[in-house]
Amino acid sequence: MANIAKKVSWSGRGDDRGERTPLMNGAEEVKYNNRQFSGGSIFHIGRLSTVDLEEEITPEEDFVRSRPKEIPHNEKLLSLKYESLDYDNSENQLFLEEERRMSHMGFGCLEIKRWVICGLIGFLTGLIACCIDIVVENLAGFKYFLVKQNIEKFTEVGGLSISLILWAVLNSAFVMVGAIIVAFIEPVAAGSGIPQIKCYLNGVKVPRVVRLKTLVVKVFGVIFSVAGGLAVGKEGPMIHSGAVVAAGVSQGRSTSLKKDFKMFEYFRRDTEKRDFVSAGAAAGVSAAFGAPVGGVLFSLEEGASFWNQMLTWRIFFASMISSFTLNFFLSIYHKKPGELSSPGLINFGRFDSDIVEYNLYEIPLFIIMGALGGLLGALFNVLNYWLTIFRIRYVHRPCLQVMEAMLVAAVTATVSFAMIYFSNDCQPLGPDHNEEYPLQLFCSDGEYNSMATAFFNTPERSVRSLFHNPPGTYNPVTLGVFTLAYFFLAVWTYGLAVSAGVFIPSLLIGAAWGRLFGILLSFIASSQSIWADPGKYALIGAAAQLGGIVRMTLSLTVIMVEATGNVTYGFPIMLVLMTAKIVGDYFAEGLYDVHIKLQSVPFLHWEAPHTSHWLTAREVMSSPVTCFNQVDKVGTIVDVLSDTSTNHNGFPVVVHSTGDEPGKLCGLILRSQLIVLLKHKVFVERASSRLTQRKLQLKDFRDAYPRFPPIQSIHVSQDERECMMDLTEFMNPTPYTVPQETSLPRVFKLFRALGLRHLVVIDGDNMVVGLVSRKDLARYHLGKHGLEELHLAQT
Amino acid sequence: MANIAKKVSWSGRGDDRGERTPLMNGAEEVKYNNRQFSGGSIFHIGRLSTVDLEEEITPEEDFVRSRPKEIPHNEKLLSLKYESLDYDNSENQLFLEEERRMSHMGFGCLEIKRWVICGLIGFLTGLIACCIDIVVENLAGFKYFLVKQNIEKFTEVGGLSISLILWAVLNSAFVMVGAIIVAFIEPVAAGSGIPQIKCYLNGVKVPRVVRLKTLVVKVFGVIFSVAGGLAVGKEGPMIHSGAVVAAGVSQGRSTSLKKDFKMFEYFRRDTEKRDFVSAGAAAGVSAAFGAPVGGVLFSLEEGASFWNQMLTWRIFFASMISSFTLNFFLSIYHKKPGELSSPGLINFGRFDSDIVEYNLYEIPLFIIMGALGGLLGALFNVLNYWLTIFRIRYVHRPCLQVMEAMLVAAVTATVSFAMIYFSNDCQPLGPDHNEEYPLQLFCSDGEYNSMATAFFNTPERSVRSLFHNPPGTYNPVTLGVFTLAYFFLAVWTYGLAVSAGVFIPSLLIGAAWGRLFGILLSFIASSQSIWADPGKYALIGAAAQLGGIVRMTLSLTVIMVEATGNVTYGFPIMLVLMTAKIVGDYFAEGLYDVHIKLQSVPFLHWEAPHTSHWLTAREVMSSPVTCFNQVDKVGTIVDVLSDTSTNHNGFPVVVHSTGDEPGKLCGLILRSQLIVLLKHKVFVERASSRLTQRKLQLKDFRDAYPRFPPIQSIHVSQDERECMMDLTEFMNPTPYTVPQETSLPRVFKLFRALGLRHLVVIDGDNMVVGLVSRKDLARYHLGKHGLEELHLAQT
Known about the structure:
2 copies of one chain form a homodimer.
Chain A: H1 2-5, H2 59-66, E1 77-79, E2 83-84, H3 93-101, H4 104-157, H5 160-185, H6 194-202, E3 204-205, H7 212-227, H8 236-251, E4 253-254, E5 259-260, H9 270-289, H10 292-303, H11 309-333, H12 363-394, H13 398-422, E6 426-428, E7 447-449, H14 450-455, H15 459-468, H16 476-493, H17 503-524, H18 534-550, H19 554-564, H20 570-587, H21 591-598, H22 617-620, E8 628-629, E9 631-633, H23 634-642, E10 650-654, E11 665-670, H24 671-679, H25 698-704, H26 718-721, E12 724-726, E13 737-739, H27 744-754, E14 758-762, E15 768-773, H28 774-778, E16 780-783, E17 786-789, E18 791-793
Parallel strand pairs in A: 1-18, 8-10, 13-14
Antiparallel strand pairs in A: 2-3, 4-5, 6-7, 9-12, 10-11, 14-15, 16-17
Helix pairs in contact in A: 4-5, 4-7, 4-8, 4-9, 4-11, 5-7, 5-13, 6-21, 7-8, 8-9, 9-10, 9-11, 10-11, 10-19, 12-16, 12-18, 12-20, 12-21, 13-16, 15-17, 16-17, 17-18, 18-20, 19-20
């Protein structure tokens, strides 16, 4: 026990408004401290609440508590508050009996149900995307209409400061609503949700991330934050929304609403749920970017331990339906029913192949732009990292968070206004202009202020203008200043307690400097007509900047190509993204990875660190392990489960346990299973009376899923404590095992490939010697000085 | 032993021109019969030659032998001639020592080497594609030029039969050369090579499939068969070529050429090689279709047990380089250097978004076309299946195969000629016609024969014409007759002893009936201008037909979209491919799967059959298992290895083996490792004298890889037989194990996810009770009447 306990380097007191996690899962043995630290405002993957027992306050801990605002939060820690998903089926007798009873036809029905669920997921995700889009458009339109009228009124008579105040107040009001619901109701809905979904697909059970409440807060949060004019996009949150929809639909019930449709009961386990959530995430990507293939790739990249063809097809189906639904309803909304031209929330507009061919000698330029994107992306991430640390330390109260969000909204409005005001970049207003709100301001009649088009617009429209407006629309100085201002605004905005994504701001920053790059090029080599189109460089710049910030890989390439709608750009986009990734990785990690690390999530990467071959299972495992006998006393079991100093979730079951020595392994049982058994009082002594009683079925386990009651809520009388429980029927009789000499990379590979939660370590006689869980593997990582070990902590 | 031997249902005598497989790998124990059956002409995944011992000729076998031409070949068999790849690293002490010695920098170097290799793979694959393209174009051009001159000469004066003969003879001559090199030199180069690569990526060691000789024969074979006017494409073989290039480059040597560059020695094992081969296959797809992302998906779909991000990136890199190389060299060849407009061998031409938008009400039409494609595809596969059975029985001699190929070539020419001759579909020759060889024939001046454009062209050009020629170019009757004729020609052609792919013929058939469909639609609803463009329907038809025949999934969608160069079509193509797959799967399997089954390859699908939960490891495993002690007598080892009645490849190593009872498992050693140990005489007794000798290193194993010598070639003296061998250092001390109660799906999942070759089955005391290998798992499949078991056979 001590071998892990000593690794708990610090813990701080936080609020525990979050709901109580009923199970103290995770196989490590850790001494709980009653003080913990709220996860910070930025990336609330649920707040931990452990058992509140005042015990063993060491002087050091006391010292920490005395300075609650300067907690040494850093990314060299691994939080113990995250559990793993049970992706590995517990193939106990009940399960096998059910599977064996099922006919070929029965499996066919299940398969059809899976398809139906995926269709529903796609449909609902598309519908949500459609609603968000329409509401945001109308709200933002109303706001810009008001402000524009006001500005026009005051331009002549003076007193534009009133317009500024109006704008700032409108923005702040919207953002305040968005921030309040996030900060006070559901902090896990903050941000884009992509890091949380990445963690979920990786196999980490992030508390409350796929709840209905989260979805509602997310949807309203994103509407208000985008309408509030923040430097955010509505695309990232769609991925989270899709995942929640999937988790809800696939279970055929809502625990929050206390409504059980008695459907899809077969799918009530982590294995199936995670598969559906990957379909939901894909549907979200698909709706956000009109990129069904990109969505599938995103899900597979993040979630696939194992490529399953049927699953891939279903994910693909959900993605297609989602994109189609969005397209269909938006076409009706735009009064062009049947014209399927907007498959995603973001629309890059049409790139015609004629205008935008590229030539061989442009490739080095693309590579330079990729490198630039990587550099700027790394800068973005580093700045945001520092800001996040600052926020974790000082801005962790909900009201502070709301105030910060409002401040950012007001500053965004002020900066925008100032830039519009001081820029005198007037452009002629052509007959076929596509600006929705051309602001004349101080320009002469028939002209409009070009800086205003960049700020006085939803970011999506600004991106499109940068891609497609004809050469000469933008003044280079305007673009430069805009890039600079928007870059810092976006850095500041990401991590606020609002639901918002970073895709669109990244694209906008990149498009701005990309277009600037293109304009400068055409100055240098004015003779070449091929340089003439700065829209092409805006696209490449957008890809470079986005790649530099988020560092997604194959999926991002496909998403960009699909969103562009033209394969011609495939090769340059790939090249740029690859360069941006290589350059960016040299300086800093991707934005999502930064935030995952800051939350100390036990995230399993693709492979164990290269230089970890000298570690074996014996070194990484947790031991000693609490085991149960096949037939064990109820009292013993209750005591072990109630023991707050150990928070095991999986218990090896052994044949003969004499004294301290662990016995021969014969199975593995989960805490959740034991709790259901205790709840139903499945004791050997009651077996005779059970003849009348119905036998415990898999259904009982499914009904309790996923919120198993805590052990404290189960009453066991003193008599019952003396009864015996026979675990044989309920334990998984064939858990995966490794010998204790197995090297860490080998253990890692097995664990990751099969999505395990517990891996039993045995010796040559099949005796249990230890247990490997996610945290034991995630804590080794490759640092600057070779292999490093993260400390485990109750963050 | 008997439990497997009885499953050998039949065997026939075949020629064993193929080289001797040195190792009788596979863990099953099988009595070898000296008769075996040549794999047939169609899908020569290497010929087996086992040990020739005349033994136990049962009456039934005698009966079979007496009718060598009517062997009951069917797909309900599983061949024992295929070995598995050792995708699981043998983490023995030597390996671990090497890994531990290696610094962080060392791993970095390895990573860079991997990237360099992938770059080389891409470059060489692109270069090969480029060469094939240029040579085919010139050869075919020359042929058509000759025939056209001849036809024009004889049109006026009569005697067109001479032209026909000239055409037929030219075709046959080309095809003869192509067929001879395939049938006599390297039968494994026949066909498209995609089934073989699928098997290889699945983990089956297909003999001689990634050899240099195969590549050479493949390249020349495809050139001659395409130039010979067969209904074939040059795209499929590119995938095989890419894989061979990858296998060669990554090993840094050629065993055939006896040339060792002493490079990349670290990669000389199956794990690394298979990863590179998947990059090569992706590069091949990329070069063939200009579809880098599609290539990556193809490789991942077929080969990924496990999605590894770095591997995905490298595959992607190889694909990009390959497409770029092809594009670059072709642009130089076409005298437009730097204009990167032909990223693949097949070029669908440019689809402009304006012309080819689709509308909501067209979607049901697309679905109908998808269903039609599925039906026609299933018909194609069923016809080809019967034809293949016929060929296996009657056309298995190389000279017969060559004659058949020549016959097909002559018939193709005759049919083409007849259709051109009898069609009087004259079309005006516009000023901007893009027919390279417009045949006037009996048309009046200024007109040309439109049927001739379909036949008098390489299939790629015909596809492009069908996609892009303006409405009215083709007469519906012409198209109908063409579809019919080409369909049967293509069915007949696939499976000939020539190197050729089925992609282009499928696309051509589909494009023809798709265009016909479009023309008919415009007749029905002549008012709607949107129906006007039959090129759109040609594209959809092509996708439907291809999907119906090959049934690839996500990758095919992406390939089609990338080849089209326009994302607008993404959704309809997905829809059509999905419909085609669902409809087609109802009637018959995909073409590649049909051929894989006919070759009885132990191919592991995605999952174990649904209804196999009632089977456990105990039932599926092979037992008893031949085990070795940690320190065992050389004589015993040599005897076991030489014993032709057992052909184990992996041997569990046990601690105490007293008598018959197997002991406690402590490791696993491979036949190949034992052979290297015997060759180097690593005996305990020689340990003292070894002080001067150098210690056996991993390098010695790598040098012997992949063609380990047969046991017969190793001389062990009588004295040496009494020596002892200590296996501790060389065995894999941590093989994966399962308890004997594990259900088949669970065993399957572990086996498939980690790409295993041997899985040791143990009891509760860690005693070895059996061994599961690929054939034990592949033999269960879901038939029409529930779970079926395939018979194992020496096919």
